[in-house]
Structure formats: C-alpha cells, structure tokens
From TrEMBL:
Gene it is expressed from: acs
Domain AMP-binding enzyme C-terminal: start-end pairs: 531-608
This enzyme's EC code(s): 6.2.1.1
A Pfam family that the UniProt record links to this protein: ACAS_N
Name of the protein in its database record: Acetate--CoA ligase
Family annotation (InterPro entries): Ac_CoA_lig, ACAS_N, AMP-bd_C, AMP-bd_C_sf, AMP-binding_CS, AMP-dep_synth/lig_dom, ANL_N_sf
Keyword Ligase: yes
Length: 648
C-alpha cells in the first residue's frame, strides 16, 4: 500500500466534530509558540482544588527532571467523579459486562462515587496512607475501576498488575513496588478457562515472604467456589467494604505527587515501573481522549484493553471519566462462546466507539465477514486501535467491514511512558491513511533522528523521538531514576527516545516501523527478550539462550527461543520443558511459539549473538541471510537452520 491511499475527512459526512482544520492548526501553532500558556489553558479541563499557574519546569538533559503544573492542587477522583455529581449524577459512568453473568452492571456517576468512597474508607481503615502503594490484580470487573479511583482518592499510588503474570512475576513486582495492600479476585474467566487469581496471589505472597510489605488482601468473589482466606490478612471485598461510609473527603494532592505506577518491559531483564504524576497525567488523559474520541452525551466508549495496560488506565478509566463520558468494560473474548461475541455486545449496549487492538482485529478478520455482517453495528461511529502496527489490509477490513466505510478508524500510537495518545488523527478533520498512526497531537514536537542522533526534517526515516515535554510524560522509573535517564534520554541527548522506529511522509504522517530495541510486542504486550533470557539463565542446564520476535499472523509478533544446553545436560533438557519454564516464570502471555535446542549460537567475532540472523531463520527466511563472514563460525548457521527448518 502506498502513501497515496488517503481517505479525506469529507468522506465521513456529518461526523460530529467541533473542530476544524483551522482551529486544529491554530492549536498546534499556539502550543509551539507558548507551551506553558497552551497547557495551562488545557489544564482548565479538569477540576483543581487550586489552579496551577506554572507550566513546564525541568529538562531532558543530565539528571532529567519533568514537572508540570507544580503549584496546582487536586484530587484525580474528584476530576472523574465529584465534579459530575451536580449535572451527571444519574448518567451511566460505567457499564461492566461479565461473560455468562447476565446483563451488565450499570453504575451512574453517583453510584460509582459511592463505591469509590466506601473503598477509600475501607483502605484507610486498613491503614493505607497517602503515598503508599496498593497493588490491584483484577479481571475486568467494576471493582477494578473502583479500586483505581479509591486509591486516587486517598492519595495511594496504584500498581495494576496484569492477570497474565506468573506468581513469580507478581511477587517480584509486589516487592519492587513495596505494595502494602492488594486488591484481587478469587478467579478470572478467560473464555472457558478459569484462572485462579487468589491462588496465584497467595503463591506470590508466599514467595515474596518477608520482602513483601503487604498487610491486607481484599478479595472480590468472582465465583461461587470458596477460596482459602488467611485470617487477619484477607478480607472478602464486599463483606468488608460495603459497610463503610458512602462519603470520603478526598486527600488533596500536589500536581507532581504520583498517581500510579505501571510495570512495562524494556531492553534489560528487570521489569520497570513507570511513574505518572496526578496533575499532568489527568490533564493529558482528558485532552488526548477528547481530541481523538470527543465523547458526547449518549456515547458509549468500549475500549477492550485490560486495565493492567496504559490503554486501560487512560482510555478505559481516567480519560473517559475525566471527560464525563460513559465507559464500558467486559471480560469477554471476541470469539467466545462463539465468533462475533463482541458484535453482540456492540449491538446490545449500543457502543458508539470501539477501541481495540490490531491483534483483535486480525483475529476477527480471520473469522470472516459473514460473522460481522450478521450483526447490527449501526450504533458505531468511531473505531480506534492502539498497541501495535496494523497492516493497511487489516485497517481497511476494520474500516470497510466493521465500520461499513462510515466510521473513521483512529490508529493511535502511544506508550506506557507517554501516558496517553501521542500520534493519532482528529476524526472528521484530518485525512486518514490506512497503516499510518497519523500525526502528532497539538503540543507534541515529534522528531525523527538519523543513526548519528541528528534530527532530520521533512521526509525521513529513523528513531522516533519527542523533542519537548508534554504533561502526560512519565516522571521516572520507580526506585531507579538513573535507569530512566539512561533508557530514554541518552540515545539522543536532549530528546525523549521512544524505542520505536518510524518513517515520516511528505504530508507529515508517521508510519511506525517497530521497536528498535530488544522489546517484542506480542498481541500488544511488551516483552523484553532480556527478561526471557534472564529467566533461562537461572537454569543450570542452559549454557546460553537467545530470544527473538518473529512475525505472527494474529499476534503481530511471537516469541521464539534458541537454547544452547550445557553439554552434560543435553539429554535432560526438552524444548517443551523450556517453554513451560518460561510461562511459569513470566506468565502465559510469554508462551513461546517455538523453542529450539541448538548446539551453538551464531556470534560475531566480539562474541555477540547475532539475533538479527536468528530472527530471519526463525521466520523461515531461507534467502538473504546476509553476509555471514563476520561470524566466528559460519557453520553454526547451518546447524541452526537444520534444526529450525527441519521442524517447519
Ligand atoms: C499504548 C501502548 C508501547 C509500544 C510502542 C510501540 C507499540 C503502540 C502503536 C504501536 C504501532 C501503533 N505501539 N501503539 N506500534 N502502531 N498505533 O501500547 O503502550 O504497552 O507501553 O506499548 O507499542 O512499539 O513503543 P505500551
């Protein structure tokens, strides 16, 4: 698909937007000219206890410091709830659908406020204080949204942990974050599978042992089966929480106080918790969701992301609620109990905006057009995606078959570190190009740099960087500011380095070419290959390993692992055993597509494993393996190829 496939905004006649090309350009110009003035104006979107007068303060140089709205005071739960109690108390804030549990629960702003206050009281009663961390490990149930907002209300920092992490993964994060309380569920359902959340949490807490500071565990009962409860530590969520008062005076926070942290993967082994600050983050969540989604009364936004991802934070919880919209969550899968399940739900709940992942789009595309065509999807007006690159074919399928060519598709590019959308179209105003994440939102100074770190203007390809701070920017990595500076600000001094590669075309549209570091993206989930290699390095039977990402038709990328066993261990080590070890240690999401035991790994003369070559071999690229003369022992390649291609 060439850059010339362009869908003009006029194609979506009558698309409701209050913006025009001129107003958008004016915003971009104003943000460039007067950064502080622009953002202080945007900060008016949210409710402040004391309005800020200061914009950005800090620097991307040296010991990087990022501060926004420093003299402002606020409470984020007030921005999302209390401010709507006067005019939207009875409007539905949250639709929470659970597969197989009948009609969805609908919580109005008043009801959500009540529940948040009860939990805020309960957490306070348990001794949780401002600044302390609370881990949330829940499936997509209403309590997940309540828990995040209740933490925000008492000033505790929430750490939402992904349900796909293993007990080891959870233990490591509980210890690293110093969490004092946990909110979890007895089980989660994933289609026909039951995932024992509480049991995993018990194992994690046992493994963390004295290193964990967790004193209380609240358990949402999601099944009728009893789960073991440790007296003194564990409480049944509703038995405990529902008796508390329905009001709680919000703790007033400084704009720069942390709101939450969220673990993500980078190119080194240890997972890192990205820290976001109250003021900048909520302004950014509100601004970005309004620019791209522009929720209006009557809109139902269903973002299918798990709350444990940044998309779940900004596009499920904080953005929609800060803007007074209706947000929907569901623990359903697109094809369970039958293909087209999500289309049933779109019709049943009259979803107007569906925001999902390219992986989900590809999976639903594989089920065929008939499945979609059997449903009434006339409620939809906007389709969104984020998380991974989408091919123009899949984009067009989403647009033509799901959106019936009526609904714009907003491909939005962002990261845990960016807090919200950075690249994305303004539907109805800007042209769309299938496969491109469009253009930067006003206020974002995107840059592309060449291999020498020089900013290139105009049509360019290289490293995707951001030249100026924006309010939703991550402030640090929890407990490791040096790593924060090193990871994001040294590759191209003075700029924020995203880790992605991109091409910019003549119209200023960005085309993401993928990660430039050793991070792979499996169905939108970031996994550092070093994380996998670290786990394998702990097994004494393994001499060395190399993890690589290969293209996968549905998941975007899949994990393939090469193992060089110790000579004396070659017989006891099996490829299945290695795969099991990875899922046990990291979680189900990291399950490899293939594991290959090989006698040796291809290396450069300086001893570095040539992952690029392994990636090609694992992808079945039999030609163009490139120049092998730089390898210490080119014959190794033959042995690796035999193992892999013999198995294909
Ligand atoms: C929001 C989110 C971030 C990484 C990012 C990039 C990839 C995200 C994308 C995309 C192509 C898009 N990514 N959006 N790639 N097109 N529209 O996914 O955050 O989990 O931190 O992942 O995802 O590689 O660097 P996160």
């Amino acid at each position: 698909m060439s850059d010339h496939t362009v869908i003009q905004p006029g194609h979506y006649k009558g698309y409701p937007t209050t913006m025009t090309r001129a107003s958008l350009d004016a915003m971009t110009r104003q943000a460039r000219k007067d950064q502080d003035g622009f953002w202080l104006e945007q900060a008016e979107r949210v409710h402040w206890h004391k309005k800020p007068t200061r914009g950005f303060e800090g620097s991307f140089e040296g010991d990087v410091s990022i501060k926004w709205f420093e003299d402002g005071l606020l409470n984020v739960s007030v921005c999302c709830l209390d401010r709507y109690l006067t005019d939207k108390a009875d409007q539905v804030a949250l639709i929470a659908h659970r597969e197989g549990h009948g009609p969805a629960e609908k919580l109005t702003y008043a009801m959500l406020h009540e529940r948040v206050c009860r939990l805020a009281n309960a957490l306070t009663h348990l001794g949780v204080e401002k600044g302390q961390r609370v881990a949330i490990n829940l499936p997509m149930v209403s309590e997940a949204v309540v828990a995040m907002l209740a933490c925000a209300r008492i000033g505790a920092v929430h750490v939402v942990l992904f349900g796909g992490f293993s007990a080891d993964g959870i233990a490591e994060r509980l210890v690293d974050s110093g969490s004092v309380a946990v909110i979890t569920a007895s089980v989660a359902y994933r289609g026909a599978k039951i995932i024992p959340f509480k049991e995993m949490m018990d194992t994690a807490l046992y493994k963390a042992g004295a290193d964990s500071a967790v004193h209380s565990v609240l358990v949402v009962r999601t099944s009728d089966d009893a789960v073991p409860m440790l007296p003194g530590r564990d409480h049944d969520y509703h038995d405990f929480v529902d008796s508390f008062e329905v009001d709680f005076v919000p703790v007033i926070m400084k704009a720069e106080d942390p709101l939450f942290m969220l673990y993500t993967s980078g190119s080194t082994g240890k997972p890192k918790a990205i820290v976001h600050a109250c003021g900048g983050y909520i302004v950014w969540a509100s601004y970005t969701m309004d620019m791209v989604y522009a929720q209006r009364p009557g809109d139902v936004l269903w973002c299918t992301a798990d709350v444990a991802w940044i998309t779940g934070h900004s596009s499920v919880v904080y953005g929609p609620l800060a803007n007074g919209g209706t947000t929907m969550i569901s623990d359903s899968l697109p094809a369970y109990p039958h293909p087209g399940r999500w289309w049933d739900l779109v019709d049943e709940y009259k979803v107007t905006m569906l925001f999902s992942s390219p992986t989900a789009v590809r999976a639903m595309m594989a089920d065929g057009d008939d499945v979609v065509n059997r449903h009434d999807l006339s409620s939809l007006r906007l389709l969104g995606i984020a998380g991974e690159p989408i091919s123009p074919d899949a984009w067009l399928w989403y647009h033509d078959v799901v959106g019936k060519k009526r609904c714009p598709v907003a491909d939005t590019w962002w990261q845990t570190e960016t807090g919200g959308i950075v690249l994305g179209p303004i539907p109805g105003v800007q042209s769309l190009k299938p496969g491109s994440a469009s253009r930067p939102l006003p206020g974002i100074e995107m840059a592309i740099t060449d291999t020498r770190g020089r900013v290139v203007q105009g049509v360019a390809e290289g490293s995707l960087c951001i030249a100026r701070s924006w309010p939703g920017q991550a402030r640090t990595i929890w407990g490791d500011h040096a790593r924060f500076c090193q990871t994001y600000f040294t590759k191209v001094p003075g700029l924020y380095f995203t880790g992605d590669g991109a091409r910019r075309d003549a119209d200023g549209y960005y085309w993401i070419t993928g990660r430039m570091d050793d991070v792979i993206n499996i169905a939108g989930h970031r996994l550092g290959t070093a994380e996998v290699e670290d786990v394998l390095g702990e097994d004494h039977r393994i001499l060395e390993s190399a993890a690589v990402g290969v293209p996968h038709p549905v998941k975007g990328e899949g994990l393939v692992v090469f193992i060089m066993p110790r000579k004396d261990s070659a017989t006891e080590l099996t490829e299945e055993g290695v795969a099991r070890l990875i899922t046990q240690r990291l979680g189900r999401y990291a399950a490899p597509e293939a594991v290959y035991l090989v006698p040796d790994l291809p290396r450069t003369r300086s001893g570095k494993i040539v992952r690029r070559l392994l990636r090609k071999i694992a992808s079945g690229e039999t030609e163009n393996l490139g120049d092998l003369s730089a390898l210490t022992d080119p014959s190794v390649v033959g042995a690796v190829c035999n193992r892999v291609w013999g198995a294909m």
